Amino acid sequence: MASKSEKSASKTNSEIGPVKPLTPEQLLRRADLSALDFKTTKDLTPLKGLMGQRRAIDAIDVATGIENVGFNLFVLGASERLARESVTVTLKGSAQARPTPPDWIYVNNFREQHKPTAIAFPAGRGGKFKDAMESLVDDLMAALPAVFQSDEYQAQRSAVDEKFQKLQGDAFAELQKKASEKQIALLRTPMGFALVPSRDGKVVPPEEFNNLGEDERKQIQAVIRELETELEHIIRQIPRWEKQRREETKHLNSETTQAAVDPEIDEILADYSDLPRVVEYLEAVREDLVKNVAIFILRDEEASQTGEDSYPTGNAFDRYKVNLLVTRADHEEGAPVIEELHPTLSNLTGRIEHIAAQGVLATNFRLIKAGSLHRANGGFLLLDARGLLTEAFSWTALKRALRSRTIKIEDINQLIGLTSTISLEPEPIPLDLKVVLFGDRYTYYLLSLFDPELHEHFKVLADFEDSMERTPESEALMARAVASIIEREQLLPMDRAGVELVVENSARLIEHSGKLGLSPDQVRDLLVEASHYAKAAEREVISRDDVQKALDQRIDRASRVRELLQEQVLKKVALIDTEGSRVGQINGLSVMKTAGESFGHPTRITCRVRPGSGKVVDIEREVEMGGPIHSKGVLILSGFLAGRFALDAPMSVQASLVFEQSYGGVEGDSASSAELYTLLSALADVPIRQDLAVTGSVNQHGDVQAIGGANEKIEGFFDICKARGLTGSQAVLIPASNVQHLMLRADVIAACEEGKFAIYPVSTIDEGLELVTGRPVGRREDDGQFTEGSVYRMIEDRLKAFTQVRKSLAEDGKGNKPGN
Amino acid sequence: MITYSRLVFGFHQAAFNTAIVRQTVEAAGLLDLELHGIYVRDPELMGAARLSGLREYRLLGNRVEAIDIGSLGDSIEAAARRAQELVEAEAAHKKVRSRFEVLTSAVGEAIQAAAKASDIVVLSQPDSALERSSEPYRQYLQAVSQSKSAVLLLPRRSRPGGSRILALARTPQDKSIDVARTIADRVHGLAGVEDLRNPQHKSHSALKPSERERLVIATRDPANNTLFSQWLDLIGERQAPVLLLPSEPDTDG
What we know:
By secondary structure, chain A is an alpha/beta fold.
């Protein structure tokens, strides 16, 4: 029994009239630039900004207008160069209205050298401060040695030294005098000093001394003990005297240094007194200069040997220099707009470079290099999402920076534990910028699926349209966009017919006659090439022929594979019939894409049926050459059969479907209608016309559905037919819903116009089946049977016969069972 | 004219200090003389070590300990070796010819024996007042001042960067002038002459480093050939080495 819906579907079958081929006007929608009065693009006003992107522009306005955290921008679909440039121009306009961000410097942290200090300056003043500090060092390098060489200093220094020399000298002279009076001499031993009895400046010989009476010897030894005690007392005072001397010398040095340094520092302070952190830093410099004046008055090598005062990888004066990390001095007014093309971690957050010194990798604050976050701080940072995600640590580092609102420079080598060299922890710099990520939709959806933090940081989505409605107004805009690209790229002007072809091609590129593609790069590439051919032909204007040549050449360049496939068909290596008819065999159409160019070519699909368990076998799937969508399409066929030919008994057919001579796998369901026609042909044992090719997917109700690549598929079959000679009966069946997508080649349209070729829009399987078999499909009559002699009647009869066969076999099987 | 062939130095233990050896080697290079280091092993000290109950005050550790004659001998030998190594290393570094000798005699006698009229004897002053109070240094100072040789006085602190060779002369015929010019020619330096009776050497801070003295040359006062105090004051002021030529040099060398 047929279901209710199938009954009503069957009713409509009788109403199916012969499907009319499409008219030439339906095969291509010509451009209509009648609203524009121009001969060449020179007469047009070039279009500035973005075309047809209202939604995206609104999003950009929102993102640039909201200062709150997280309102960064993810730009979808604008990955092409010209589109990016347009976004950049828009952002630059917004950036100019923003305040110019500060300069940032890193300076030495005198208390903790491994944590350099970051200081902000109003724009442009950072560089001046750097110059001032360099002048300070230069001045002090000249002034301090001079001060310390001066007679005044030397005299005071000598006075200090002499004072303590005299103190010691007097003490020892007193001791020596006392010793001489008591006939005792002070001798130098390798380890120290010895007091010995003497006479007339000579040491008393041992024999003589040992021969003295014991009392006398003891007396002399007692004197020596007494003098030793005094000697010890004096020597014990020496460290204290030395300490006093060092302190007095240090005090003298400090006073001398202070006198030289103060005027220099005060002069700089006067210029930066409005910046508390700079004042704090200069005071630290003053203190450090006084403490480490030795580096200025000793020679370099001596300075570098002064222990903790020595400074790695540079001379000792570098500690007072300034690392100007970012400055706005040379930039335009307003906020920066920076595009980072290579967003590695170090390019993004900055890096700390190292220098090999004495066998180790050393660094200092002057080797801190800015990243794009520093350069863009206060403005906009433009990044490519895919590039960012493919760089190790960059994405997480960016999120960390956005969350903490600081830029912390991290050493990648230390992050992954590759090195353990001396490194720095620079003070993080406050971050205030908008990040603009450019990415394709796939990347965005994937990222939003796997990283829930995406929406925390990128709250605004600017979704760029790939196409816009095709109207006379939009075509006029497109013509002005062409004029704009020609002006920017300094190409030859283009005539009206040329522009029309560019507009038409734009519709073809997105496979829709009612829309215009919004890919500036594709238009630009076409214009550049067309201009090249115009110049080569010594023309002053790009004509339609030049544009057509550019399009043809582009196809030709990518045609090696297409021509090989065509050749195989024409030489009957790949079997494709374009005349006659055959049961269970049809020409399907598929699309291949090579080097950015797509082309269609026919594929033979065949089907064989026999009694069986009610299964349609997809041979492609059985050998794992069919993709899931293709398999789904094949399984839908069973659904169609079950619905259309509802039987009282289970379906007892076994059908096998195959793409003949297919060695590379099949995916997609655009051939499912062709497969169904083949299956039905095989079941009805009715031949299919081989001068037709079919494309379109099908649902379980038998509706033919739209597919992609309709233009290329039609042209692919046309090319084979044309090569073999157009007969006038050759045609392509396409889903009726694909008619709107047609933007066919001129030669195809001409052949259709001359009646040598045709394109049929098909809405249902019934329409298509009548076309491919040349017979009526039939309708369910009042007796519940399909019309006598119709294709569907033949199918149903065949299916019943299969059921009968299967039932008989089942009964035979039971009868043969032992025990029955 | 320079007729000297050796720069003789050492004689007391404090002379073998790195700073003094370096200064001496530089002076030998400047004067283009062979450096002759002499370490004196004083028999008086060895004799004193046999005095019963004798002790020494050790600088390292600030303590008094009994002198052991065996270890004293070892210490003297070790000190002599260290002195030799230091002199040879510094001389090699500055490419100065050198010799080293260990003499066993009293300091005064060692100087008399070693220093010929064609030699220049170095007088270096130890920093330590205790060293300067010791008997060997006193003998050394006395022997050098009485020596017939020319004497090179080294300052305790020298000011770097000087390049002028200055003669402090009493008369235009003073031989210090010739010597200064000869040295200046050889080292491509400036030669200058000042009147010793009316010296102008007070305004040093105004001088550029190249105008400061690298070496001062003078002739000893014939009236008091042994008086050193004035020269020790002079080197304190100039902070440059002073070469004192004998008033009437013998020509035995």
